[in-house]
Specification:
alpha+beta, Aspartate Aminotransferase, domain 1, single chain, 6 strands, six-stranded antiparallel β-sheet, globular, 3 helices
C-alpha cells in the first residue's frame, strides 16, 4: 500500500528535531519512531497515532477516528485519523503520538 507523501512531509515538519527520532516502513506505510517506539505514521491517506491504552477510548470518541486494525484486529492504543481530523488538528495528533512514545522506555 502506498502512502501520502505530502502528508508524510507535513508530519516530518511537525516532529521535534531531537535524537532518537527515526522512520521505519510498517503496516504498509511509514512510521515515525521515537527511541524505537512508534509515535505515529502515515498509511494510505490516513494518519495512524499511538495514543496508548489509557487514551484509546477517548481518542475513538473523537470525530474522524477509528481503530487501527491493519491486521484485521484492532490494536489497542492505536487509532487511524481520517483526512478531516488531519486538516483540523494534525499538530495535535502528532504531538499526542510523540508524547506517548516519549513516555515509554527506549528500545
Amino acid at each position: 500500500m502506498a502512502y501520502n507523501e505530502e502528508l508524510v512531509e507535513k508530519v516530518r515538519d511537525l516532529l521535534p528535531k531531537e535524537d532518537g527520532l527515526s522512520e521505519k516502513q510498517m503496516f504498509g506505510g511509514l512510521a515515525f519512531m521515537l527511541n524505537g517506539n512508534m509515535a505515529c505514521g502515515v498509511v494510505g491517506e490516513e494518519l495512524m497515532v499511538r495514543v496508548g491504552p489509557d487514551n484509546y477510548q477517548a481518542a475513538l470518541g473523537e470525530r474522524y477516528t477509528r481503530p487501527m486494525d491493519y491486521t484485521g484486529r484492532p490494536l489497542k492504543g492505536m487509532v487511524y485519523v481520517e483526512e478531516d481530523a488531519i486538516a483540523e488538528d494534525l499538530d495535535g495528533w502528532v504531538t499526542r503520538g510523540v508524547e506517548f512514545a516519549g513516555s515509554l522506555p527506549p528500545k
